[in-house]
Structure formats: structure tokens, C-alpha cells
């Protein structure tokens, strides 16, 4: 299984860090099947994060869809159905309408600090789309902030997005106050959507066009960094857990290795889409993960 789970980019990072054997062990948990416990988990989620490359422009974007729990459902051992559509202004809309597009998804439940990733291929379907699963796996709760409750605001309506090639001062402040973001990366083998979390300040807006974050120790698979080693295109998504605003960024990201073993990712922005009130969900305040390092450490 591990020979198909990892491509040369992930292998190069694993070897550089010295975790190939551990990665092989962890990689045995990845398979194409959706187990009953995973199917049940999906049906209880009010939102789904997903990412892909635009088939026309090549830009990689991350996005999020929300709906009444059950809007994401396993319709077989190797397929999920998503009964929702992206906003007309969502930069990921074209990719989600193109059959066969590689897509990465992540279902995350802040109430239980559980998450599940499913990568596969797009297939249009009535009232939404389906994803034919190629890789399904769960991750540990490390760096996940707990949010105990949420409510849906039926009066909230998405407003017109602000599209730019640089981050405003307000957007940079929003980024530096974030405790969670999502990143999509791609490779010839497919697309992957992943979660990153930490105490506010762990994600830095170094300039109007550059973000940085430290790569905290994880499951040693290095799927994200492995993809970036082969293809630097990336899409970043931030959510305002109170107002429902989304900030979608596309650009390129590269990993820098320090002599002490630290890893820093530098993301260079090419385009930003800021959509006020994009989601109808309002979550309670976070309880930060005890695994979070202090920013700068």
C-alpha cells in the first residue's frame, strides 16, 4: 500500500527528516474504502472543506461548503455525495463542475476534534456532485481547536467578494488572529486538502503578498510538503468562525529547512478572494489545543 500512497516528493521529505519507516507504518491506514464509522461521521458535519486546481488557469484553490448535516453522505464504499454547490463567485466553481478533476476534501468536527480526509475524482451529480474516493484516512486531533457548539443564521447572505492581488491591512490582521486554516496542494497523483492549527500568531502575514508558517510535527506522512516539493502551487482558506467570512488565497508555497530541524513554509500570493458572510454558521469561542506550541517556538 505505501508504494502507492507516497510519491517521490513525499519520499524525499520523509528521507530528509528521517521518518520513512514511521511513514510506512502510518501509510497502512490509508485506503480507498469508506468505513461505516467514517460514513456516520460525515453525515453529522455541517461543512466540508475541499480543494482542487482550476482546469483552465491551473490555479489551486481551497473552498468550503455548508449545509444541514446529511448534505455530505457516503453513497457507497468508495463514493460520497455532496448536495451543495459553491457560490457563483467561488474560484473553485469551475473545477467542481469538471468531471474527473482531482479533488481533496476534509471533514472536520470542532466539537469532537476529529477530522477525516478523502481524496478522489469529481463527478457531477443532481443537486451537487460526487467524489469517487481514492484515498480515505483520519488524522489525530493534534492542533485542532475545540468549538463546542454552532448555530445556523438563516438570514445571513453572502456579499459580493473583494478580489485582489495583495492583502489589505485588515486582511493581514485577520490572518494573524487565525487559529486555523486549510491548505490544498496537488500532484500528478491527485489533490489533497489539509488542516493547519495553532495559537493565534502561528500564521504570519509578512507582507501584502507573503505568508509564513512553521510546520509543526505531525503524522510523518508529509503529504502536503511532499506535494509542494513536486509542485509549488497551493490554495489557502481561512474562515471567520463567527461571521462566516471566507478568505481564499492562491499562489505558490515552498518549504525551507533550518539546521535545527525546523521547517518553515513561505506562501507567495497571486490572488485573494474575500467573501463576507459566505457561510451561515456561527461557532462558539475556541478552546485551544494543548498541543499548540507558543508562536515563535
Automatic annotation (TrEMBL):
Signal peptide: none annotated. It comes from the Bacteria. InterPro entries: Pyridox_Oxase_N, Split_barrel_FMN-bd. Pfam families: PNPOx_N (PF01243). Residues 170-255 form the Pyridoxamine 5'-phosphate oxidase N-terminal domain. This is Pyridoxamine 5'-phosphate oxidase family protein. It comes from Streptomyces broussonetiae. The lineage of its organism: Bacteria, Bacillati, Actinomycetota, Actinomycetes, Kitasatosporales.
